[in-house]
Design brief:
99 residues, alpha+beta, Alpha-Beta Plaits, four-stranded mixed β-sheet, 4 strands
C-alpha cells in the first residue's frame, strides 16, 4: 500500500520495527492511507497492533467511512486476542475546546 514517489500524499500511517524483531511479525495489512495493522505472532495468543490517523477537517461522510473501516478491522480480531490501538484521533470533548 502506498503511493508512487511522484504522487502527493497528505497523510499516512506506518510502523517502525527493529530488524531483530521483524521476523516475529506477519506482513502488515494496509487498510487505507489512514489505517494499517500488524500482528505479532505469539505462541499463546497473537498481539494485533493497529495504527490509525483519524481525519479531523474532513466532511462527516469521510469521518464516518474512517470509523467504519476501523470498526471492520477490529471486528475481524478474535475477542480472546490482544489488541493495541495506536493513533491520532484528533479527539475533542464537547464544544469547549478552545483555551
Amino acid at each position: 500500500m502506498g503511493k508512487a514517489k511522484d504522487e502527493h500524499s497528505t497523510h499516512g500511517v506506518g510502523f517502525a520495527v527493529s530488524n531483530k524483531l521483524v521476523q516475529e511479525f506477519d506482513t502488515p495489512v494496509g487498510v487505507s492511507e489512514r489505517i494499517i495493522s500488524l500482528t505479532l505472532k505469539q505462541s499463546a495468543s497473537p498481539i494485533h497492533l493497529i495504527c490509525a490517523y483519524a481525519p479531523h477537517t474532513s466532511e462527516a461522510a469521510v469521518k464516518d467511512q474512517f470509523y467504519e473501516s476501523l470498526a471492520g478491522v477490529l471486528n475481524k480480531i478474535p475477542p480472546e486476542d490482544c489488541v493495541m490501538l495506536l493513533g491520532d484521533f484528533n479527539a475533542r470533548v464537547g464544544a469547549d475546546y478552545l483555551a
